[in-house]
Amino acid sequence: DSGVTQTPKHLITATGQRVTLRCSPRSGDLSVYWYQQSLDQGLQFLIQYYNGEERAKGNILERFSAQQFPDLHSELNLSSLELGDSALYFCASSISGGNTEAFFGQGTRLTVV
Amino acid sequence: GENVEQHPSTLSVQEGDSAVIKCTYSDSASNYFPWYKQELGKRPQLIIDIRSNVGEKKDQRIAVTLNKTAKHFSLHITETQPEDSAVYFCAASSGLGGGAGSYQLTFGKGTKLSVIP
User: Fold this and answer.
1) What is the chain A residue with the closest CA to B98?
2) Residue B104 and residue A74: Cα distance in Å, rounded?
3) Are the C-beta atoms of B89 and B105 separated by less than 8 Å?
4) Of residues B44, B104, B108, nearest to A56 (C-beta)
């Protein structure tokens, strides 16, 4: 158990819908990252937050948004879903940022039908 | 931003042989290089990491080497076992400019290692 909790584990929804993925980082970790992993693909960086502030954006679509709350948990919102958004979404957390070990959650498997 | 290239994309070795995975990075200011192992259907987990002030680091059958001049680093697994079969990701940490938490972790595309018994 990495200490990073992601909910839900599985999500099936229809095209055009909106979903929210939730991540609770390890106790004490200030940085949260979101990654998308499609079938047989690598880890595509979406966005990073540090202590409530957005720090970096990767290949995140405009239909996607995220935030980190005062209690440091984070949510990734995916809207106007398309079939191609089906993927495994990972959240990771680290103490200070990308120069320290990042601990991954178990991921949320999103299936868009 | 940082760009990390990883080779090969797939690697098959006989049990007991060594495996080597290589990565190159673009940002000369990157200073932290972790390696993650992802078993099928599971989350990536850190197996070893190295910082830019060190040239080599070992942990039992796993070692990582770093060449800052050439901007490449490698993962070496000796005496491979079937349980080493997984996807391995390298990553590089580059600064975003100023302030705490200002580092981005960029991953390579992964290497699928298969250890044949």
Assistant:
1) A55
2) 17
3) no
4) B104
